[in-house]
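We were asked to recover a plausible sequence for a given structure. The inputs and outputs are reproduced exactly as logged, with field labels preserved.

PROBLEM: sequence recovery
POSITIONS: 228
GIVEN STRUCTURE:
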């Protein structure tokens, strides 16, 4: 399957989800598993390491379920499919807003997110929040805990964390210390090749900690929001 065709199918897959109302409802209409459709939507890797795709068989199932003519999944139905971005890896990034709903997960889930990608959290069992900016389909949402990142981030703030973004000096990251389950949230600092994690709160004890090989970066914060 070419990249352009794969991208078209994912765009049309998103259209069908919108038409059905929810991914769960589309799965019901197509008489298939919502967990499976979620894995396709988020490009979860198979045990062999390949991304799940909208196969010919699945395309046909979705077309019939939603009353579309044969081949509809392989045709352009809007400006998103105009050819712009043909050189971008298909489905690597979702659109901003309601078309790109991301799961609100726990800090324990965040710490093990990469390992859990083969068994994604079912979309009907988590709260899904729209990402206001373009982000990868692996992005997840956390609620900030504690005061270590004040004044920039307050307890209860929502942070959107993208595992596909490269951590660079000054960005805010979610990391996990190897051998533990939970993740933590700090600012990433790179000084002449030495890397540190820094709490923004000037009164925080041990405010700056050097990163060693036992730390895994789970993702970079790409957006902050508040619940009002």
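RECOVERED SEQUENCE:
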């Amino acid at each position: 399957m070419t990249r352009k065709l794969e991208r078209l199918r994912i765009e049309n897959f998103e259209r069908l989800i919108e038409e059905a109302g929810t991914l769960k409802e589309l799965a019901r209409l197509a008489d298939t598993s919502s967990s499976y459709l979620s894995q396709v939507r988020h490009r979860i890797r198979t045990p062999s390491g390949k991304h799940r795709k909208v196969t010919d068989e699945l395309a046909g199932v979705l077309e019939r379920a939603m009353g579309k003519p044969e081949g509809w999944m392989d045709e352009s139905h809007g400006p998103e499919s105009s050819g712009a971005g043909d050189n971008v890896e298909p489905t690597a990034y979702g659109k901003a807003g309601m078309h790109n709903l991301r799961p609100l997960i726990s800090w324990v889930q965040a710490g093990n997110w990469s390992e859990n990608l083969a068994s994604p959290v079912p979309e009907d069992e988590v709260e899904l929040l729209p990402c206001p900016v373009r982000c990868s389909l692996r992005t997840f949402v956390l609620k900030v805990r504690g005061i270590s990142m004040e004044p920039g981030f307050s307890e209860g703030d929502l942070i959107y964390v993208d595992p596909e973004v490269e951590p660079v000096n000054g960005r805010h990251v979610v990391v996990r210390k190897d051998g533990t389950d939970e993740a933590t949230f700090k600012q990433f600092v790179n000084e002449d090749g030495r890397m540190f994690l820094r709490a923004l709160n000037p009164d925080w004890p041990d405010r700056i900690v050097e990163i060693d090989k036992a730390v895994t970066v789970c993702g970079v914060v790409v957006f902050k929001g508040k619940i009002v």
